[in-house]
Amino acid sequence: MKKYIPFFKAGMMEEMAYKTAIFSWLLITILQLTCIVFLWIAVYANAASPVINGFTFKEMIVYFVVTNIFSFVCLESSTLYDINTEIKDGTIAISFIKPISYRFRFLFRCMGACTCRLIIMGLPSLIISFSLFIGLGYLKIESVPVFIAHVLLFFVAMILAVAMYDTIDYMCGVLCFYTTAAWGLNFSKGVLVGFFSGTLIPLAFFPGKFGKIVEALPFKGLSQNPVFILTLRVDLMTSVKYIISSAIWLVIFSILGKLLFNHASKKVTVQGG
Amino acid sequence: MIEINNLTKEFRKPVREQGVKGMFKTLFSKKYESKFAVNNVNFTINDGEIVGYIGSNGAGKSTTIKMMCGILSPTSGSVKIEGVEPYNNRMKVAGKIGVVFGQKTQLWWDIPLIESFKVLKQIYRVSDDDYKERMDFLSKTLGLDEFLTQPVRTLSLGQRMRADLAASWLHNPKILFLDEPTIGLDVWVKEKIRKAIKVMNEKYNTTVILTTHDMQDIENLCSRIIMIEKGEIIYDGAIEDIKHHFGNIRTIVLTLKEKPDEKKLNTFNNKASYEWKDEKLYIKFDADELEVKNVVNYAFGELNAQDMQISEINIEDVVKSIMAGNEVIE
Predict the structure, then answer these.
(1) Nearest CA in chain B to A7
(2) S-S: B160 plus which of A188, A232, B155, B318, CB 3.0-4.6 Å?
(3) Chain A contacts of B108, Cβ < 8 Å?
């Protein structure tokens, strides 16, 4: 594992280079959240009941604020584009002659980048928003030890979510071995994840059978589950269940990724030179 | 040891028709055109050899190298490095080989060179002592000190290539693949690189496989050459043998006061041939059949030559004529 530390560091350093990107995110997110708050004010004002699909207005706001911060920190990976670039310019040849796993190299880089975003933006904005939620009565903490347990479980769920997201990104990247249509793959991935992970809307809003299918898919572990754990929407028992289910899915996806790579790497053609 | 058995690589590409109509046709057609980049190649390279792997552009050199270091998988046949197939066990073989692609760098573009070396040290798990010793050796032979702290993107081609060679060898690989390591370099840098390769081979017994278009590289470094043309091996053997493949040919160029009467020249029983070109007389003969001394005596004695040059056939001429497919040397 020690030999992957340079890639973790590189991920952190590269993220640090995009300071302006981080601050423009802050601005955009504040604007976006303002819009969302007004949207939901309108929705709840015209609703027949004060609870929509299990969410009160306050819970809905808490959910969206935390989800936005979470997806900024965790659901971001350059793996797909990096693989595509390596295939396009032929540098993949260089990657293949190093005694390091192609998969782990990208995973550690992604983890490094996430760590950087978490420290610079994630933690401060979570602390500020939680102080506000508690101060304004949007969130009630009945027992501090239980809350701390939730926070710890959240971090486990978060690491699993990052690994899972990067694995999906990696698999899309490996598909670029067959077709160099990175843009299309990235777009499809974005829609899939946005829709089924709960970043767009809580999964409880999906109706009937479709809702049941979405609930059974692994994507909710990417965002909704960790957010539920942190915002105390689920108890500790359920939190642990979420984590176990995410871990199992991660193993399954990793194996699929490995099989896909083994097949794809036989198809490699190196461009140029 | 490297063993290559019946190695074949076939590239398939879809046949495209021209124009817009053709483009739409290609969307639905599944016609493929295949090309054998490497065709049924066999050879074995022993530890400590320096082998020149030569051939014209597109002959299949790079494809073979890429299969040898595990980047490409062969269509059929096998490559074995120390008994392991590199394309099936990438991680296992990667620690034993070093690779330089003249046209690509393995250094990290934005960070200072020394940082790249430190990263490689960690990746290949080189111990502190080994790292220090090898860095000393590399900076001395390749002159890395002057640009060690510069970011790689600011290096000149010559500096970058020296750095790349150093990077490929930092983990002391048993086998070093050099794909056109001297492409586009000036004479001084070429010299440094050749010297470093020679020391790596002599002192550390590194096996070197070298592809190049520069015959000076071959003549200075290699004891054996393998020639590939259109994916097939056309020569594999010692460099001396290929020179003598055409006989031990010498050419003597004489500067004379005036053009001699060609009919009166001594042909030594048809063993020497003459040509008058650019106000000079060219005498060509096989040194195994005719003693050089005799021809020289004749030139200064009877022909009263003012100046003279003797040249042996060089490897460049040999390669050129083999590639051209004719065995006439000019």
Answers:
(1) B119
(2) B155
(3) 10
Nearest residue of chain A to residue B102 (CA atoms):
A273
Domain of A187? 2-265
Inter-chain CB proximity B91 and A2 less than 8 Å: no
Q: Would A271 be classed as within a structural domain? A: no
pLDDT by 10s per residue, chain B, length 330:
999 999 999 888 777 777 787 777 777 766 778 889 999 999 999 999 999 998 888 888 989 999 999 888 899 999 999 999 998 888 889 999 999 988 888 888 878 899 999 999 999 999 999 999 999 999 999 999 999 999 988 999 999 999 999 999 999 999 999 999 988 899 999 999 999 999 999 999 999 999 988 888 888 899 899 999 888 998 898 887 877 776 778 888 888 888 887 777 777 888 888 888 888 888 888 888 888 888 888 888 888 888 888 888 777 777 777 777 644 333
Q: Tell me whether residues A96 and B73 touch, CB distance under 8 A.
A: no
CATH of B247-312, one of 3.30.70, 1.25.40, 3.30.60, 3.10.450: 3.30.70
- What is B45-243's CATH number, 3.30.460.10, 3.40.50.300, 3.40.50.2300, 3.30.70.3270? 3.40.50.300
Q: How far is A193 from chain B (nearest CA, A)?
A: 30
Q: Is residue A208 part of a domain?
A: yes
Q: Is A208 on the interface with B (CB under 8 A)?
A: no
Q: Long-range contacts for B196-205 (Cβ within 8 Å, ≥24 apart)? A: B196/B138, B196/B141, B196/B142, B196/B162, B196/B165, B197/B50, B197/B165, B197/B221, B199/B137, B199/B141, B200/B169, B200/B176, B201/B48, B201/B50, B204/B172, B205/B47, B205/B48
Q: Is the dihedral of CA B34, B39, B45, B50 positive or negative?
A: negative
Question: What is the token pair recorded at B143?
Answer: 């002159």
Q: Where are the domains of chain B?
A: 45-243, 247-312
Q: How many CB pairs below 8 Å do chains A and B form together?
A: 65
Contact flag B99-A2 (C-beta cutoff 8 Å): no
From the list A3, A97, A99, the residue facing B99 with the nearest CB is A97
The structural domain count of chain A equals 1
Nearest to B71 among A6, A10, A270 (CB): A270
* B94 lies within 8 A of chain A by CB: yes
* Measured CA angle at B7 (ends B2, B11), to 5 deg: 130
Whether A16 and chain B come into contact, CB under 8 Å, resolves to no
pTM: 0.82
Joined tokens for residue B87: 């394309």
Here the ipTM equals 0.76
